[in-house]
Each structure stands twice: as structure tokens, then as C-alpha cells.
Amino acid sequence: MTPDPVLGGPIGTLTAAARERLPAEVFHYAAGGAGDEATVLRNVQHLDAFRLVPRVMRDVSVIDTSTEVVGGSLAAPLLVAPMGMQRLYDEGAEAGTARAAAELGIGFCLSLFANCSPEQVAGAAPGQVRWRQMYLTKDHRLNEELVRQAGAAGFDAIVCTVDLPVMAERFRDAGNTFQTFDNEVAQAWSPALVREPFFKELLGLWREERPEATAQQFIDHVFPHPGCGWDDLERLIGSSPLPVIVKGVLHPDDAARAVGVGAAAVVVSNHGGSQHDRSVGAIDALPAVAEAVDGAVPVYFDSGVRSGTHAAIALALGADAVLVGRPVLWGLAVHGPDGVRAMLEHMTKGLRDTMAFVGARTVSDLRKATVRSEPGPS
Ligand code: FNR
């Protein structure tokens, strides 16, 4: 079958198609980042600056992309990154995305700020490796309740995102009130979106014991939690029946500390540049983190992955699997869950082809491939 030129073509074509399809505010909310967006750009450019050294004559007639991650086996070392409010892109929202990934044996991570509940996602894609993302709030009861709900819905792991002490200044969002969801554009685009804060699920849980509380009181007393520290993470891990993966680590000492408090894995990520501008490029941080962790737990990677070759580079630099962010949203915007599946299929094919060129028959072969940084025009 001839690949779809949009969903199976270069990422620029897919991004342009999503941009055409989405209301401007929705596109800019997803595509944009913090500050001058230097980190959004750097993530991709620095992945582009790496080159794999081909190896020849290695019999690559059979290539096996399967791998194990926390929670089970995947057909390819790819998972969908946690991204909130997916009903902005398609009515099927997270349940549709999860199902599309599951059809390819790819994992899924559900954002705390999702439009679908953990039960809806579990129902849409039974048997899939699924992780539930959360943030640590100031309210321990709430944190433990989120973990309990994920376990009850059959999720395999918690992903605790630790790189958001404060909310970033995002210029593209200025005048765009997604933060409160009290937004005419969002309503017109997708009437199913509720006129409530984007953290409505979390707010609802917190309000169970204080029904009169306002959203502002929630922001003041619960989330975000800039005072959060390693003790809070250790407490969560200690009370969680599910393994806890720590997302948003860039410094090797932080990675070692996360392992020390019991993390089941770490995710090297700068949130796709959407929160802290002028952060190191995530790919630049990966080798030192992998070295510091030294196989004690798996190291996963996201931020800037736009192709199967990018995923292969991350694996060759020490990642055990890769989370895919914005390209999933573009696939969802262009053609719903089918668009997500086609984009992920294309990415998996790119990964498989790259494995053939570097003579890697398995994911563990790929992790030994030679990769070099060659800064300059790509
Ligand atoms: C995100 N990301 C994110 N991360 C997280 O831990 N919880 C969340 O709710 C969200 N929400 C979210 C929304 C949108 C629109 C984007 C683009 C990103 C960050 C996400 O998990 C991942 O780290 C980045 O998207 C990876 O970067 P790229 O590949 O999108 O550039």
C-alpha cells in the first residue's frame, strides 16, 4: 500500500496539515513552548545533529523491534507521551489515541489533565502497556488517591512528572484561556469540552472533602507545588502499589537521586520545551543520565522525537524506549485515531529501516550502534 503522503511523509508536512485543520489557538497551544521557544527548537535540531554510522553485511533480513518496558512488552520501543486535553484534536480524545497505539503494540501514558478517565482508556485498549501520569500536589491524600485510581483501572505504572515547579510564561498562549477552559474557541471547536478548569478531575477529587472550595483556593493550596522535594517523591513511591517512573530528569545527579528513592525508571525530558525555556536539549542530557543510572533502572526519553531515525538515535545514546509527543497530536488532528496509527506506523517503519542500515537486528543491538554528533547544517 502506498503510504499516505501526509501521515506517512515528513513531519513538516504533517505539522502543516494539522495547522490547517486546527483552530489557531489550539495549534499554537500544542506547538508552542516557553519563552522564546529556544528549547522547543533545540530539542529537534540537536537530535538532527547526530549521525549514525552504518554497518554493512550483517544479515538484517529479520528485524525484531520488540522490547520490554515497565509494565510489559511492546512491539516497538515507543509509547505515547502524556499530553492533556486530547479532545481539542479529536472527539475520541485519549481513548482513541490509546486504541490506535495499542493496535500497533505501542504503549500509552495518560495525562493527569486528560479528557478521558483512566477507566475509559483501559476499556478502549485492554491489554496495552499503560501508564498514568500525575504531578505531586501539596495534598498527600490526593496524591495517594490518584495512584489508587490508576491501580483500580488496571494501569501498569505511575509516571510522576517532576519538572513543573511553576507554570511557564508562554507567549503564544497570551490571550488564549485554555488554562481555565472558559474559552469560546474551545467550546465552538469541541462542544464536549467542559467549561471547567483543565484540572477538573483533580479539582473534583480535592473538593470531595470541601465542596465549597474554589478553583483559586485549589491553585493556592494544592497545585502547582513549588515546595515539592525528594521526600515527597519518596513518600509517594513508598505508598504506591504501582511502580513509579520519574519524568523530567536532565541532570545525572537527579537521575541517581531518583533511583535512590526507589524510582522504577526515569524519563529524560524537558517537557518538549513547553515549560522551561533555555533548558539543555533533552538529547544532550541523555548520555550522562544513562551513564549515571548505569542500568540500575530503565532510562526512557522524550522531547523532540519527530521520526523513527530520531528514536533510533535516542536508543543508541542510551534510552531503553522513547515517548512520542507532538507528532501524535498532529496525527490525531488530521485523521483522528487512524491518523495516530498511521503516524506511529510510519515512525516504526523508520526505526526498523534505520536498524537495518546500522546492522541492528534487535533493540539491544541498536543500543550498541555508533552515533556521532556533527553540529552544523543538517
Ligand atoms: C505535554 N506534556 C505533558 N507532560 C506531562 O507530564 N503531563 C502533561 O499533562 C503534559 N501535557 C502536554 C500537553 C501538550 C500539548 C504537549 C505538547 C506536551 C509533555 C509531554 O509529555 C512530552 O514531554 C513532550 O511533548 C515531548 O516533547 P515533543 O516530542 O512533543 O517535542
From TrEMBL:
Required cofactor(s): FMN
Molecular-function GO term, any one: oxidoreductase activity, acting on CH-OH group of donors
PROSITE patterns documented for this protein: FMN_HYDROXY_ACID_DH_2
Family annotation (InterPro entries): Aldolase_TIM, Alpha-hydoxy_acid_DH_FMN, FMN-dep_DH, FMN_HAD
Residue ranges the record marks as coiled coil: none
Residues annotated to bind FMN: 82-84, 111, 133, 161, 247, 269, 302-306, 325-326
Protein name: Alpha-hydroxy-acid oxidizing enzyme
Natural source organism: Streptomyces echinoruber
Lineage, highest ranks first: Bacteria, Bacillati, Actinomycetota, Actinomycetes, Kitasatosporales
